[in-house]
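4.2 Preliminary Data

To establish feasibility before requesting continued support, the project team ran the inverse folding procedure on a target of 80 residues. The structure was first converted into the token representation described in Section 3, and no sequence information of any kind was made available to the design step. The complete token record follows.
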């Protein structure tokens, strides 16, 4: 293979390899950013749900106390 033909092939292959390398790097960078955004969104969703769950626990405890008080009132009224 002579240098002219080798130069012609290199003229095509090298820019193609550079283009592929840059494209792959941009793709990987984009995927990393996308996964980071998804992780942050999931984390904020989990935190919000944890806060909602804590509020629901407080509400259920209050309802149980109210229910016990009402049951005591009913028992008192029935015992009269």
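Position-by-position output of the design step:
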């Amino acid at each position: 293979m002579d240098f002219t033909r080798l130069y012609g092939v290199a003229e095509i292959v090298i820019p193609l390899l550079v283009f592929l390398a840059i494209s792959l790097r941009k793709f990987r960078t984009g995927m990393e950013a996308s996964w980071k955004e998804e992780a942050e969104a999931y984390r904020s969703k989990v935190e919000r749900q944890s806060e909602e769950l804590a509020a629901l626990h407080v509400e259920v405890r209050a309802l149980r106390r109210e229910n016990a008080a009402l049951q005591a009132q009913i028992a008192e009224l029935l015992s009269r």
